[in-house]
Amino acid sequence: MLIHNRVASHGNGRCVIANKPRNHEKYDRILEAAIKVFAERGFHQSTISQIARQAGVADGTIYLYFKNKDDILVHFFNSRTRHVFDHFREAVRQAEGAEAKLHALIHHQLEAFQGDIHMAAVYQAWTHQFQRVAEPQIKEMAKMYLDIVSEIVELGQQEGVLRKDLYLGLVKRFILGAVDEVINTWLHAGGRYDLTTMADPLVDLFMRGIGAGPTAAVPEGTEPKPGD
Question: Is this model's pTM higher than 0.90 or not?
Answer without folding.
Answer: no
